[in-house]
Amino acid sequence: MENGEVYSSTTENVPSTSGPGRGSRRFPFTRLDPIRASLKLAELGFSLLAFICEEVVSLCTRCAGLYFFEFVSCSAFLLSLLVVIVYSTKLYEKVDKDKVKTLDIIFTSIIGVLFLIASIVFACTSDQTTPETVAIVFGFLASIIFIIDFGLMIVEILRKSQSRKPEVPQTTLTQPLNAST
């Protein structure tokens, strides 16, 4: 008896849509609605552009604001990239989804506030050169996008908490268990 005959009745070939040994080539954002997915990509893009424009600055007289902005924009880009990678790969299936959402809320809120502060500080300490001005504009845009994304996450949480509340009459909750009637 051949090995092919033994296994042919119990196994089936499953057609592969993405080719042998390769994953899907598109960047899936099925775990996020289209608005949140576009906000995540905008956060990623604006923080990268702010970092690149800040790196182009060749001379500064008061550099503390520039260095703070550099740290925040680089950190924002890397953390945003991490969140996008987790949401768009199979890694999301392997980790606790509630923890990913909680970390996303924490990252987004902290980065939004720090980006806003860094942009204000950099705007106050800059020499008003073109690269500095462009970096500041991208910094403000990134901070606005982060804050909008945080607001949408809070609205989503509030909607879910409102829909989960059971409708229990108030009188049954306030009656003592051992009351004699």
UniProtKB/TrEMBL annotation:
A Gene Ontology term for the protein's cellular component: membrane
PROSITE patterns with a match to the protein in the record: MARVEL
Record-annotated MARVEL domain positions: 31-158
Transmembrane annotation, as ranges: 66-88, 100-122, 134-155
Region of interest: Disordered: 1-25
InterPro entries assigned to the protein according to its UniProt record, in alphabetical order: Marvel, MARVEL-CKLF_proteins
Leader peptide range in chain numbering: none
Location(s) in or outside the cell: Membrane
Biased composition (Polar residues): 1-19
Descriptive protein name: CKLF like MARVEL transmembrane domain containing 6
Name of the coding gene: CMTM6
